[in-house]
Write a structure and sequence with these properties.
64 residues, mainly beta, flat
Length: 64
Amino acid sequence: MYTLPTDENSQPIDRVDDDENVLGKANYGMGLRKFKMGNVTMSGKTGAKDGYMNGVGGTNDGQR
């Protein structure tokens, strides 16, 4: 679930926009985004609808 999409060399694939412009390396897998808070790497999901914002996240080992 936390695995990022990779190419044939096991490197994260490029993120591209609708016009095929490269935006950086992939940081989403199964709808979860990997990010860093201080020295802790976490995965999570954010969302917004009709004026509400929400999010959920945690570490891969489930400790946080």
